[in-house]
Write a structure and sequence with these properties.
Layout (H helix, E strand, L loop, with lengths): L2 E3 L12 H9 L3 E3 L17 H8 L2
Parallel strand pairs: 1-2
Length: 59
Amino acid sequence: MSTYVLVHGAWRGSWIWKRVRRALQAHGHEVFTPSLTGLGPAGGLPMNCGTRRGRKSVR
């Protein structure tokens, strides 16, 4: 199957992809929905996180 990374738009968080993520996973796909910096309940990634930490958030 395929792997998808779904990135939300402005004023949203990873939660916006909940239905789409579930539908894709139900068909056997791997889906990642990271929250961008400063958004969502956890506040996203800090601005100075670097690529290594950013990659870990989508694994």
